[in-house]
Structure formats: C-alpha cells, structure tokens
Amino acid sequence: MLQLQAEPLSRPEDWASQYIRGDRVHSEIFTSPEIFALELQKIFYSTWLYVAHESEIPEPGDFVTRSIGRQPLVVVRGVDGVCRLLMNRCTHRGALICEVNRGNQSHFRCFYHGWTFENTGKLVHIPKDDGYPPDFDRDGLGLPAVPRVESYRGFIFGSVNPDVAPLREHLGLAAAKIDYMIDASPTGELFLDAGTHKTTFRGNWKFPGMDGYHPPVVHQSAFEIFRRTAASQNPEVDSAVAQAPRKTMNDSPLAVSRDLRGGHVMLDSMPQRIAEREIHLAATRRMAGGEEYIAAMFAAYGPERGAELIAIGGDPHLGIFPNLQLINQHVRVVVPVAVDRTDVYLYPVRLGGVSHEFNEVRLHKHEDFYGPAGFGQPDDTEIFERNTDGLQALGNPWIDLSRGRNRERGDSDGSIVGHITDEVTQRGQLREWSRLMSAS
Amino acid sequence: MISAAVDLQREVEQFLYREARLMDSNDYAGWLKLWADESTYWLPVNDDDSNPHEHISLIYDNRQQLESRVWRLSGLHAHAQRPKSRLTRVVSNVEIEPNSGAELVVHSAFILCEVRKDTSHFWAGRNVHVLERGHGFLIKMKKVMLNNNDTVMPNVTFIV
C-alpha cells in the first residue's frame, strides 16, 4: 500500500518542532547564529559530507584542501595510496600545515616552527627535538584524520562522527541517482579537473535548495537567451530543447519533484527527457563530437539504455543532504561560513571516453548559466540575499512550504513525488534537518 | 617617429578611458559598439593562463554571447543588476606591445570600486586588449585577469 503523503516535517516531541508548524517554518532557522552553531554540531559534525572526487587526487601525494563544516582539511592520497582526510592543523601550536589549494607533496611542513608530517599524517620531524621531556608522545602527535572516509563511485565522503551509519545506507535511494551523472560517460569516468567556480553570498546555507518553482521567474532572462540562441542556430530541432527548461519547470506532467528520503531530493525530469529522447538525440548528433559520443554510449550501454542516458544528459538534478548537489554538468558543494554567509563551489565534470570537442561544448554550457558572471546563477545569488534581508521582518515570521502537499503521492520505490514546482523537495530536506537537529 | 609613438599611445589610452566611462555608466549598448564583429571577451577563472577550451572561465563570450549579455543586462529581469552597481574605475599602466602590427596588443591595469545595495567591493586586475585598427579602434579580444579569480567571489554582473 503506497503512502499517500509524506510524514509531518517534525514530531511534537522534537526540539525542531518549536520552529515548525505544519508546513510552515520559522525564519529563525535561517537567521539565528545560535541555530547555525547547533547545525554545525548536529548536522555537519554528525552526518556524511561530500569532500572531494577521486579524480582530483589520482596519484600518491596529490592533495586538495577542503573543509568539513568550519574545519579545514587536506584531502590527500598518501605515499601508501590511501586517501585520507587530514586535519589541516599542526599538532604543535595549531597553524595550517598546508597553505595552497592543491598540489602534490610527500610531506607537509608547518612553517611556524618546522614540524613536518608525512602525507599519511605521521609526524616525522621536529626541529631541535632534544628539547622535549622524556615522556613526550611523539607518535601520538600525527595529524588527526577524519575517522570515517568512504567513497561512492569516485565521490569521497567523510564524517567526523565515528559512529555514523555506512555511507551506502546514508545515500539510500539517492545512490542510484548519482549513477546518472557518472553514466553519461561511456567509460563511467568523471574528471573534476576543468576548474572551479567559487561563489559566495550573504545568506544561509539552506537557501540553495532544489526548487522547481523559481526558474521561470528568477531565470526568465537566461531562458529567453537560450531560446533565441537555439532558434537562431537551428529553428526546428534545437528550439524544442531550448523550450525544455520552461516546459519542465512549468507544465510537464512527466517531470516531478522527488523526495528520496534522508534529506536527499531531486527535480526529476528524467521521465520527460526519456519520452523526448529523439529530440535530445537529434540535438546531441548536431553537437561537435556528438555522433562519436552517441556511438560510444550505444556500445557501452546498448541503444535503449544509451539513448536514455544521453537524453538525461548526466543531470540527475539531485541534492544529497546536506552539502552536495549534482546539477546539469557540475558537482556543487555548499559550504556554511556563518548564519548569513555561504560559499558555493561548482566543479564542472569532464566525461571520460569522450572527445575534447564534446566536453568543451558541455563546459561552455556550464559557463553560460553558472558562475559569478553567468546568465543564471547570479540571479539566484541576488534572490538569496533579498531573502536574507526580507526574513528580518517579523510581522509574520513564518515561511510557507505547503505547495503541493495536497497532491504529493508515494512512488513504488518509497520516494514521495509531486508536481515539478511543488515544495516536496524543501519538505524532504527540512524533515531530515528536523530529525538531525532533534537527535540527542 | 617618437611623435608617432606618443600619438598612438595617447590614442589607445583615450580609447581605454572611453571604454571605462561606458562601463562605469552601465552604458551597455555604447560599450557593445566598441567591439569588432568577430570578438572574444574572456575572464579566466582560477588561473590567468588556463586553456579556455579545456577549463571553464568566468566569461568566454563570442560576439553572439556578448550581445546576449548586453541584452540581458539591458532588460528588467537581470535581478543581480537591479539596482545597478555604481562603478568608478581607474585604468592605468597602458603599454602597447612592440611590433604589434595592424592589430595592437595592449596591456593595462585597473582598480574598480563597485557600490551596490549598501556594500562596496574593490576589484582589481589586469587587461589585455587586442585592438583592430579601422575608423578608430575596435576590440577584437579582451582578456580580464581579476586578482581574485581564484577566491570565492560575489556576482560579477557589471561590465568589467
């Protein structure tokens, strides 16, 4: 028997219930510094966070600097080939031991007093080490590593909570959705090596959600540009594709907002794209390197599945709670800085087994919409900042997330679906927020 | 000979100052008129010398995209520029590459103050212009290397 509606956002006995009334949420969860501090503990230091992709550190010694919540990390492949998440903090006085974003090093030296660590975290050199007492615990002063590190098909997650459930359990229904981004490559390989858009906005980390309601309003100008450009290049074929975002976000009964449980949500336009696969195939055929790509995909996955994957275009439009989103051609990481400051990093993916030309077209598509100077993302940023300012007005301090509550329904896999514009996704994220924040 | 070089230097500087004024006053249509029919407007990200075909950029516009950018900013729905940024920039250190030939390769630097919605941002960077000589100059390529292109940054939706 399928469930007709999802559960309430919180239970009366939950801590979070003071901020949740039915499908309304109090603005303080976006504005209170105390709640932000609690979120770091209850969410960012309790559950799994995405930190990096294996393609960023393929060789021993390769590293990138990242964070878990506010804690700086070095994600490094050691001389032993093991990927570790080392705290970027000297065990002597606490200065950073790594000051650059990325590189390849066998050792990290703190340039305060010269303590030096192997890239496995082991402390290997202390200048003038005859100055320490006999009971000095040198072996215990290696760089602490994040206790839990697990990967899902190249996506590396970490948790500072040693008791967190296995990653695969955490991902649940979302794991199979991640596959759609990876399987856009005929070899199943993604490379996050095409640069990073590093953006910041004055607002809360929970704003960048998976919202299928806003695009026709916020992104009207970008969609109009894409429509005109496509129409000028090929009046018949591409205008249908260019119309797709509008159609998806407004009308299509095949596209749904989906709550995958556990706070993972998606704007699922796959059924619509699959139904329109001939249009997508025709558009792909016309792209530089398109024919070759289609042939490689059909060879790898068979014509049926291959055509579906091409139509989906590597875009699950998926949010993995709390800090990862896979959208269009990029991997997005949300970094909480303060209650009213969020950094968002966008890593476009290059597909393995695909020509330079084809990947180049995808990278330029990303550029068109995203980044601080794109035609789309800056308008999101602006609206988030308006949201930050608007939430200061407390005449009615509640925000309403009830859209589509009356028409959501259970799907056979246990997820909850609604119209693409419905706030099924926001409710799914908040339900997990409420659960984690209320945990003892 | 010296006088010709001085004249050219002054002419190029005047062109860059005019461009700066048009950008500072958000005169998008006026700015677009400075561009050649085939042109590239490039703001690298992460690294000033990345390959724009293998690495994303902040902006890598051809003429058509440049026109789209101007169209978008001129309309009512570029929310990130409602209200518009108030801008003042100083362009300096103008240097014409020797042996530039018919197309001039011009290096310059700028410092820019942007004020929008009670917030000031200071931006700085270096430019390379490739200028086509015709009736005056037309911009064939402009590359802007922002000093902060590898840090988190707010919107860059004004013309830089």
Query: Which strand-content bin applies to the residues of chain A?
Result: 15-25%
As for the number of domains of chain B, it is: 1
Could you tell me the number of beta strands of chain A?
24
Q: Output the CATH class name of chain B.
A: Alpha Beta
Helices and strands of chain A: which structural class? Answer: alpha+beta
Task: State the end-to-end distance of chain B.
Answer: 34 Å
Proper CATH architecture of the largest domain in chain A: Alpha-Beta Complex
Strand order across the largest sheet of chain A = 14-20-19-18-17-16-15-24-23
Low-confidence stretches of chain B: none
Largest sheet report of chain A:
9 strands, antiparallel
Question: Overall pLDDT of chain B, averaged?
Answer: 96
Biggest pleated sheet of chain B: 6 strands, mixed
CATH topology tier name of the largest domain in chain A: Naphthalene 1,2-dioxygenase Alpha Subunit, Chain A, domain 1
What form of chain A results from the Cα inertia axes? Answer: globular
Helix content of chain A: 25-40%
Query: Roughly what percent helix of chain B?
Result: 25-40%
Radius of gyration of chain A: 23 Å
